[in-house]
Amino acid sequence: MTNPKKYLTNYLWKLIERYAKIKLYKKQLDILDEWKGPHRIETLNKGASFFKLVDASFKRTMLVELCLFVSEKEQKNIFDWLNKAKTHSKSLNPTRADKDDKNGYSRLAIKDADYKKVIEKQISRFSAHSNIIKNLVAHRDKIFTHYDSSYFNNPNTIFKKYSIDVFELDSLMKTIEEILSTQHSYLFASSIPSFEVASYSNVNMILAYTRAFMRIRKDKKLIIGKGFKPADYLKEIYPDSEKA
């Protein structure tokens, strides 16, 4: 490695970008789950087939991308980055914020031994998630990328043998975020950009507008009293509208 600092900072940034996309899929899936509640399911059912397809597609994509991110068998993964960072720690010149600087501009160099301890703790924390990582990879390998014939007739058996616990998954993703945030702070001398992406709200907005329109259609007082006809807005061209 001719320029470890350049290589590893670029590598870290790409990992951050990859994780942001994984988080996007996860957030959209969480939103869909929220709409499956008894007081909201009617809205979701208006586009049941479509949203089932979205749900399945997002789950598959998120799982495959997450496996690429956490599996040690992959060429570019967070384990690989941490191990390389430990090997080339002196070249990275990590810094931390100076707590005594009220303005928050001053940075202090982190001793190599201390930085290696941080990395070792992060590797240890990540290794604690080995069970959920193993199960995620099993789902990817046996169902999505290479369909295992033993699960063809009884696909649900994989969930019994390789269960994916929601709390374990959330814990894994929380650990990832903390590692990426810490390393970004040390190597880029700034807080990591938020993983919250504006498009998180897309699914929620679509369903919220659908529910609002459904409520309007059921409000007979509004329709009778104001002469409002919601059905007109379902037409390709409704009164006083411009042609699309």
Percent of residues in helices: 55-70%
Structural class: mainly alpha
Number of domains: 2
Extract low-pLDDT stretches.
none
Shape: extended
Could you describe the 3D structure shown?
- With 244 residues, the chain is mostly helical.
- It is built from 11 helices and 2 strands; from the N terminus they run H-H-H-H-H-E-E-H-H-H-H-H-H.
- The protein has 2 domains: 4-199, no CATH class; 201-243, no CATH class.
- Helix content is 64%, strand content 2%.
- The protein has a two-stranded antiparallel sheet with strand order 1-2.
- Helix 1 packs antiparallel against helix 3, helix 1 packs antiparallel against helix 4 and helix 4 (78-87) packs antiparallel against helix 6 (112-127).
- 16% of the residues are buried.
Concise synopsis of the structure shown:
With 244 residues, the chain is mainly alpha-helical. The chain has helices at residues 4-34, 41-45, 48-70, 78-87, 89-92, 112-127, 130-145, 157-161, 166-188, 202-218, 220-226, and strands at 95-97, 107-109. The chain folds into 2 domains: 4-199, no CATH class; 201-243, no CATH class.
Summary keywords:
244 residues, mainly alpha, 2 domains, two-stranded antiparallel sheet
SSE layout and pairing:
Elements: H1 4-34, H2 41-45, H3 48-70, H4 78-87, H5 89-92, E1 95-97, E2 107-109, H6 112-127, H7 130-145, H8 157-161, H9 166-188, H10 202-218, H11 220-226
Antiparallel strand pairs: 1-2
Helix pairs in contact: 1-3, 1-4, 1-9, 3-7, 4-6
